Request: fold
Amino acid sequence: MSKQEDLNKLKQKISSELVCPLKDAATKMVFGKGNPDADILIIGEAPGANEDLQGIPFVGKAGKNLDSFLNLIGLTLDDVYIANILKYRPPKNRNPSKEEIINHTPYLVEQINIIQPKVILPLGKFATEFCLAHFDTTKIKTIAMGDVHGKIYKIEELTIIPMYHPAAMIYNQKLKTTLEEDFIKVGEFLKQK
Ligand code: URA
Reply:
């Protein structure tokens, strides 16, 4: 079976199996987008209002920023797959709760196992904490993005490079330069491979 077929099955499984108040309030599940055969997986936090309406991650303002960073290093949606920590939008875009992260991330782990990326770029604190805990919610520790962004972490063959969330630069313009620098580092890392 192709990775796309496996992902389609997983999406159906989430629809029928996940019990979560976020699901009842949401318009659509936001499962993922991009190329299932890509080597690069980008993990965001949770769908926003536009994503909830369309059922597609990163279609709003943060998505435009993300696209421009990817273009900066010559990448397109064909080169990456994009998913989120939460599959459904939290009300008013509040932070994901611990319980929601525990409830939703087993499906993200299944998604990762299907895609088998070589490089993961977690965007922002929640995705970074989850990845640096080796995808085990019982091992999550609080992390400051300032300490880890743009650094290269290895879990055996897998590389993890935490990035600030592109939505953060909407409120802090200085982060735009940091994000550009970090994406350029990612581009250089990919070239060496
Ligand atoms: N921010 C995220 O983290 N994910 C989305 O899908 C949209 C905005």
